[in-house]
Structures are given as structure tokens and as C-alpha cells.
């Protein structure tokens, strides 16, 4: 008997939410960046200041944090935003970067609260999927996998 797994949207959304609210904020601080710095896709992730022997560990930590920030920004920039049915990039930017409240984003993109909650969850799931690729590109594979899996509801159909 085989078990088919699929992403659990609720738990994945919660994992992405925790990561982008807490870990992302910490990496921004460690890299010397601010949310206002990441509106430009040309961000290079390099820490500011001059390196010194006494501060080598801090420089390395800041450089790594910059790479994590770049991976997060690239992931958000790569999320779907090509039509009104998938405004995922806009939702992620407005909520996690600009700090807008859910109801304001819902009004901005023309969705009811219920529709918005679903779209936000789908945006979080897309972020979790795409983050796996961008972690490799930016050499931060030790960052957590945000995809939380569950047994597929209809897996009996596919069992051996």
C-alpha cells in the first residue's frame, strides 16, 4: 500500500506566516536591511560597512542573512501575479512587506473577506513551493521547508 501526500494548505499557510513574520524580520535585521530596501529587485544582499578581523563572524552572519533575504524576496517576486485570479505576489508584498491589513488588501484587489482568506492561503502555499527553488539559487538550503504535507484525501483510489 502506498500513501499519496499532498500539501496541507492550512498548516503550510501557518508555517509560511510564522516564517515571514518572525524569521524574515530577524534576517532583515541581521543583514542590515529594512523592508523599504526590498522594494527594488536589484537588492544584492551584501552587508554594509567595512570588514575587520574582529567582526569576521558578524560579517559572515550578515552576508548569510542577506542571502536569505534575497531568497525570500526572489520567491515573492516569482509568485503568480499575472491575472486577477492569482494576485499572489501582490498579496504577499502588501501583507508581509508593506504591512497592510487583510481587509485593506481584500478591498484593494476586489475580494470579499472569505475569498481573500482563500487567495492568501494559496499565495502562502505558492510561496512555500517556490521557496524550495530559490533556497538552492541563493545557497541557503538549510532554511526550513515550509511545505507541510498530509495524506491525500482520495489516496485509496491510488493505493497499490
What do you see in this structure?
The chain is mainly alpha-helical and about 160 residues long. The chain has one domain (about 5-45, about 55-155). It is built from 5 helices and 2 strands, in the order βαααααβ. The protein has a two-stranded antiparallel sheet. It is globular and about 50 Å long. InterPro entries: ArpU-like (IPR006524). This is Transcriptional regulator. It comes from Lactobacillus nasalidis.
Q: State the end-to-end CA separation.
A: 5 Å
Alpha carbon gyration radius: 18 Å
Helix content: 55-70%
Which term fits the overall shape? Answer: globular
How many helices? The count is 5
Low-confidence stretches: 40-51
Strand content: under 5%
How many strand segments?
2
| Domain count | 1
Order of helices and strands: EHHHHHE
What's the overall average pLDDT, rounded?
85
Protein name: Transcriptional regulator
List keywords for this structure.
56% helix; 2 strands; globular; Transcriptional regulator; 5 helices; mainly alpha; ArpU-like; 160 residues; two-stranded antiparallel sheet
Summarize the structure.
It contains five helices and two strands, in the order βαααααβ.
Amino acid at each position: 500500500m502506498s500513501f499519496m501526500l499532498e500539501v496541507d494548505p492550512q498548516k503550510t499557510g501557518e508555517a509560511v506566516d510564522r516564517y515571514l513574520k518572525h524569521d524574515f524580520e530577524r534576517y532583515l535585521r541581521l543583514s542590515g536591511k529594512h523592508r523599504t530596501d526590498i522594494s527594488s529587485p536589484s537588492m544584492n544582499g551584501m552587508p554594509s560597512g567595512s570588514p575587520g578581523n574582529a567582526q569576521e563572524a558578524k560579517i559572515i552572519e550578515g552576508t548569510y542573512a542577506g542571502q536569505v533575504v534575497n531568497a525570500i524576496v526572489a520567491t515573492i517576486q516569482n509568485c503568480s501575479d499575472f491575472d486577477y485570479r492569482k494576485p499572489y505576489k501582490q498579496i504577499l508584498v502588501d501583507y508581509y512587506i508593506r504591512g497592510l491589513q487583510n481587509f485593506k488588501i481584500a478591498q484593494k484587489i476586489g475580494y470579499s473577506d472569505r475569498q481573500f482568506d482563500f487567495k492568501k492561503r494559496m499565495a502562502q502555499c505558492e510561496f512555500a513551493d517556490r521557496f524550495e527553488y530559490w533556497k538552492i539559487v541563493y545557497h541557503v538550503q538549510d532554511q526550513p521547508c515550509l511545505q507541510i504535507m498530509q495524506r491525500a484525501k482520495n489516496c485509496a483510489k491510488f493505493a497499490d
